[in-house]
Design a protein that fits this description.
Belongs to the glucose-6-phosphate dehydrogenase family. With 496 residues, the protein is an alpha/beta fold. The chain has 15 helices and 17 strands. The protein has a nine-stranded mixed β-sheet. The chain has a six-stranded parallel β-sheet with strand order 3-2-1-4-5-6. A two-stranded antiparallel ribbon has the order 9-10. 6-O-phosphono-beta-D-glucopyranose (BG6) binds next to loops.
């Protein structure tokens, strides 16, 4: 697909994301010659900076960029940096944007970006609507000449009500087709590969249902704590920060029916149907039995003392915000009736890993009575990160007399596939938005359906005495989390 000449205008440009993800992503696109001939980045924020200072900060002297560019790229970094500009807004984002409009239109004429503008909102969400309004006041939402797109960062809403209000707010100024809601997990190759695994093969999909699948497990673990983001995180928690968005997106790709086509409309129609079929937990007993929250407490890892969550900077010393959430739920539709899903996400785990485990049922007539442990052990493990790949566990005969069955692995690693550059999530997503492809962006109804499911859990945790368990930093969460998975023994803890 051809990318039109265009300008990317980043709001909140002095923030961490611009230097850490956006500019390095753009640089890789530049290096890979994916950017259009005429392309300009305009950073916008409240800080007072010149173009030169901004270029230094996000490109020329940026550690993040340096780690991507080889020495021989140095000339390239300079060429790339020359396409970057900066404009400050003064003390506030909610001001008259006539000066900004003038700057945009000057750059547009000078660099021939043909009135194609993408606005990337990387500010606190409370500013999204005001920015959309002020852009509209300057006619910058008008697609009569050139495209106008709005990319919004997470978090998209704080709960169901605020997400709905935000959708409504933005849609007053931009059409849904102009709005791109980022979920960077959708930019990950392995997450997209869930669609290919299921729908480009004939060996998995026939088994992909309640007749053959026993239960589904998803683990998202991070070894880091909340770091410098305590202030944000304490008002959020694992359920809002990871589960409502990234993990439910993964769930929707596992649960969805085959779309009739791989375009944005069809795929997102099926995803929203999947999300709407999650059984919403309404009564206290279910909420109590099927959800677990916990916080990491101080412990020693490799001889070093690691702070507990409540001791982290920016965190309330009596906080009940969860850094661990484990949820059991069902999907009420024909395909998934009665198949339990177990999903957990946490910080300060032993390692950083995200994986999906499809546990298949045992053969219904067992003829190898001595096969012991293997019987319940057919698994498809999709490693989202790291060691991206797919693992199938199946039984083989142990050589020798009798029929002893052992477990064997069929293991595929992405790293063994090609030497081609695998795009980083942000790189891929930026390019898609530049090409007007919204397949990997969340639609309004998807985001709302995910909040519908999450909202009662948030309410329950807020208003009830639901216990906040503790777990030592560096272990796989509280022991009680195994109770959730009763009947199956325990969670599968991926190795380091
Ligand atoms: C972000 C969360 O959306 O995703 C962070 O706000 C989390 O808390 C991060 O650390 C995880 O992303 P990844 O790509 O490192 O798994």
């Amino acid at each position: 697909t051809k990318t039109e000449n265009q300008m990317l205008i980043i709001f909140g440009a002095s923030g961490d994301l611009t230097a850490r993800k956006l500019v390095p992503g753009l640089f890789n696109l530049f290096k890979g010659k994916h950017l259009p001939k005429n392309f300009v980045v305009l950073g916008v924020s409240r800080s007072d900076m010149t173009d030169a200072e901004f270029r230094k900060k996000v490109a020329l002297e940026s550690e993040h960029l340096k780690s991507q560019a080889t020495v021989k790229d140095f000339g390239l970094v300079e060429d790339f940096a020359n396409q970057i500009f900066y404009e400050d807004l003064g003390s506030n984002y909610d001001v008259n944007y006539s000066r900004l409009e003038k700057r945009i239109s000057d750059l547009n004429s000078k660099y021939r970006t043909e009135n194609n503008y993408i606005f990337y909102l990387s500010t606190p969400p409370s500013l999204f609507e005001a920015i959309a309004k002020n852009l509209t006041d300057q006619g910058l939402n008008d697609e009569t000449s050139g495209c106008k797109r709005l990319i919004v960062e997470k978090p998209f809403g704080y709960d169901l009500e605020t997400a709905k209000a935000l959708n409504k707010g933005l849609q007053q100024y931009f059409k849904e087709s102009q709005i791109y809601r980022i979920d960077h997990y959708l930019g990950k190759e392995t997450v997209q590969n869930l669609l290919v695994t299921r729908f480009a093969n004939s060996i998995f999909e026939p088994l992909w249902n309640r007749n053959y699948i026993d239960h589904v497990e998803i683990t998202n673990a991070e070894s880091g704590g909340v770091g410098s983001r305590g202030g944000y995180y304490d008002g959020s928690g694992a359920l809002r920060d990871m589960f409502q968005n990234h993990l439910l997106q993964i769930v929707s790709l596992i649960v969805m029916e085959p779309p009739i086509d791989a375009n944005a409309q069809e795929i997102r129609n099926e995803k929203v149907k999947a999300l709407r079929s999650l059984r919403i937990m309404r009564d206290e007993k279910t909420l109590h039995d099927h959800t677990i929250r916990a916080q990491y407490v101080s412990s020693k890892i490799n001889g070093e003392v690691v702070k507990g969550y409540r001791e982290e900077d920016g965190v309330d010393s009596e906080s009940t915000t969860e850094t661990y959430a484990a949820i059991k739920f069902y999907v009420d539709n024909w395909r998934w009736k009665d198949v339990p899903f177990y999903v957990r996400t946490a910080k300060r785990m032993p390692t950083k890993v995200t994986e999906v485990v499809i546990h298949f049922k045992s053969p219904h007539h067992q003829i190898f009575k001595d096969s012991g442990m293997f019987n319940k052990d057919n698994k498809l493990i999709i490693r989202i990160q790291p060691d991206e790949g797919i693992l199938v566990k199946f039984g083989v005969k142990v050589p020798g007399q009798g029929f002893k069955v052992e477990r064997a692995n069929l293991d595929f690693y992405y790293s063994g596939l090609t030497e081609t550059h695998v795009m980083e999530a942000y790189e891929r997503l930026l390019l898609d938005a530049m090409q007007g492809d919204a397949t990997l962006y969340a639609r309004a109804d998807e985001v709302e359906a995910a909040w519908e499911f999450v909202n009662p859990i948030l309410e329950y945790w807020k208003n009830s005495e639901a216990k906040v368990y503790g777990y030592s930093a560096g272990v796989w969460g509280p022991e009680n989390a195994d109770d959730l998975i009763e009947g199956y023994g325990m969670w599968r803890n991926p190795g380091p």
